[in-house]
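Quick one: structure for this chain?
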Amino acid sequence: MKKNFIILIALVLIFTNFAYGQNFFNILGSGARARGMGGAFIGIADDATAVSWNPAGLTKLEKPEASVVGIYESYIYSNDLKGVETDPYNYSHFGLNFLSAALPLSIGTKNVVGALAFQQMVSFYEKYETDNWLEETTGGLYAITPAIGFQLTPNISIGAAFNIYTGKQNYIQEDKTGFLNKSENENKYSGSSLNIGGLFDFNKFRVGVVYKSAYDITGKNSETDLETISSMPNIFGVGLAYLPTEKLSISADYESRAFSEFRAKSDLGEQKPEWENVNQLRLGAEYLLMSGESILPLRLGVASTPTPLKDSNGDQISGINLSAGIGIIMGNINLDLGIEYNTYLVEGTNEYGDTYNASDNYLRFLVSGVFHLGK
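Got it. Here's what it folds into:
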């Protein structure tokens, strides 16, 4: 089923199948805490992962802070076609998702916070393996991001983050019988973009806004030297947070991604696929449970995960993401665990004209460590 979602040859450097696409179309910020809340974090954004959600939230940091996030993803594919073996498509892998350091400074009574972060934006990992055949793709698209947040007034903050994109995609094809020679291919990527955010704090209510600029991702194939420039759309997001007590927070985010404006250019010419815009809604909640001198945060979240692609009926393909999380705060150390279940149900047509139902299922575990430095 995944191979049926190849859109254009010129886009193969980035969107070689549906699995890559759903990750690329629904790029989220980082952190087990935020993702445990369904990604509804634009209006919360009060730790170093704010770099990836809303850089204005950096001003909430009062101490120097370092953080690290790891992610484990398991993929399971299924369909109702008789005689089709789906096990070879299933895989799992672990990777570094986020790494950051942040330093608060005071200018008079205002808080100014600088940060530097590394983030995995998209994982290209995929594996198809049988007794006689292996296809494996590794690598990812990453961002190195310097960011800064300014507190304008006690209630208003702004921030900016500059993303420098880099990464590569390695593809291996191997005939285990030895009849065919092993083949390898590599694509390298580069680009840059700017995120601008604002955060308005009205005690029990917070409003966050973020604008992520349109940008170009340049990909170059090591074997053919074919260079493809993919023009990614701008993103606008708004987040609302309600904090009725010191222990409870409820949040909602809405993000609009103009994928109908997507373009790809190469030596083969310019292509514009007929894609839909991607509008995502995310809801989350966090409750702080007191346990002696420690605090145990409990989290729940849900989010839509639309793509700009259409199924065989012409309907926009969309999935749902359910999440939960737990953490422990012990003095200057915060440890968090988040879990996501993301599923897509799709109706497709095979080469014989038969319709079938298929599902792409992702189970992700995120582990975060946040370390506050100094007194």
